[in-house]
Amino acid sequence: MQVSVQEEGFEFGARAEAFAQANNAMGAIVTFTGIVRDADQGGLVAMEIEHYPGMTLKALTEITQTAMDRWSLGDALVIHRYGRLAPGEQIMMVATASRHRKDAFEAAEYLMDYLKSRAPFWKKEILDSGTTDWVAAKDSDEDALDRW
Amino acid sequence: MQVSVQEEGFEFGARAEAFAQANNAMGAIVTFTGIVRDADQGGLVAMEIEHYPGMTLKALTEITQTAMDRWSLGDALVIHRYGRLAPGEQIMMVATASRHRKDAFEAAEYLMDYLKSRAPFWKKEILDSGTTDWVAAKDSDEDALDRW
Amino acid sequence: MDVLYFAWVRERIGLPRERIETSATTVAGLVEELRAREDRYAAAFADLSALRVALDQELSSFDASLQGVREVAFFPPMTGG
Amino acid sequence: MDVLYFAWVRERIGLPRERIETSATTVAGLVEELRAREDRYAAAFADLSALRVALDQELSSFDASLQGVREVAFFPPMTGG
């Protein structure tokens, strides 16, 4: 199990490859990567991600451990960045390895649903108009937790 | 949309990175990779994957196009190998890009469920005992299609 | 028409493809003809529930018509992914 | 105890953390004290349904007890991933 909260970027492809190689007895590898995309109204200059340093790693570790306990996983990886990110930059990734594709998929979706709504990160959009907007939590993200 | 049926190996990490970069306006990237794993009883020397050359690319293309039509995807990628593979080698991968993680996940699961049961590949396990076993289709794989 | 066999169907019959002249009008009729040929065909087609068929490279069914069909393929359930 | 604010709660109150001596026994009691302090606190805590609270870095609720708690954090619903 690998969990990282970091300001610096990470190489998604290289991390995904290393994870797949390390778990090549497993059969099924799922990855998810989140990328900073433009604001709905356009004009995004940067995304600032604030977090709660004392709590973040602990929360991510608990979420990941719960996934490891609940599904039959060989390994799980979570990386989440904070700080100022440009459009197109990778914000975070998760990866799961299992003998069964269903477990690998479900665990990755679980991790994403919990990272969205239960890990202490807050996103702020910096727009070229000079305005800034805190991204509002979506009801659909809260509702997604009902599945688990 | 990228679909490939090939004997040679592919670099999962490099392909995943290139796919994520090419779709970095999308927000959500999901990948799945299948790896040759040992037989349930152990002793796997190789996995031989037979396919139906005239039909395979057409079937994969239809499955992928259906996913593109059904979910809101920026792009989708499918690579599937045939021939003789050693344990630990990557057999196939799919990747999906969407503005929404739910679409990216569902489309990737749909692709996997259909590749499992509707693409003309057949796996044979070569064991160190000298015996060979055609991998039997699982009822659970057929049942997985009911979801869609 | 061309008839193709894959996986253990190919192994049981002992060849990957052959050219067959048939007056059968459905896949089921063709299967009956093949079964009557030799034991290895009878063995390969013993249990149709364990087989799938494709007509001109599209999955089809055993009650489908062979009219206009140029290529028939028989194989076990697929195990890709 | 230490009280921490994040995201727009931090911006509205104008500071990221402060040390507070309180006799409140629940989070809701602490919120009442803070609201009574100044308008910026009243504004930040106007709608509790838009806020979340963590006690000693674990998500909690507004009716939770403050007994033994060393760190309280207030923030909007999280938007990770």
TrEMBL record, chains A, B:
The lineage of its organism: Bacteria, Pseudomonadati, Pseudomonadota, Alphaproteobacteria, Rhodobacterales. Heterotetramer of 2 MoaD subunits and 2 MoaE subunits. Also stable as homodimer. The enzyme changes between these two forms during catalysis. Pathway: Cofactor biosynthesis; molybdopterin biosynthesis. Keywords: Molybdenum cofactor biosynthesis. The keyword Amino-acid biosynthesis does not apply. Converts molybdopterin precursor Z into molybdopterin. This requires the incorporation of two sulfur atoms into precursor Z to generate a dithiolene group. The sulfur is provided by MoaD. InterPro entries: MoaE_sf, Mopterin_biosynth_MoaE. GO terms for molecular function: molybdopterin synthase activity. It catalyses: 2 [molybdopterin-synthase sulfur-carrier protein]-C-terminal-Gly-aminoethanethioate + cyclic pyranopterin phosphate + H2O = molybdopterin + 2 [molybdopterin-synthase sulfur-carrier protein]-C-terminal Gly-Gly + 2 H(+). Belongs to the MoaE family. It comes from the Bacteria. This is Molybdopterin synthase catalytic subunit. GO terms for biological process: Mo-molybdopterin cofactor biosynthetic process. SUPFAM superfamilies: Molybdopterin synthase subunit MoaE. Its EC number is 2.8.1.12. It comes from Parasedimentitalea huanghaiensis.
TrEMBL record, chains C, D:
InterPro entries: Beta-grasp_dom_sf (IPR012675), Mopterin_synth/thiamin_S_b (IPR016155), ThiS/MoaD-like (IPR003749). Pfam families: ThiS (PF02597). NCBIfam families: moaD. This is Molybdopterin converting factor subunit 1.
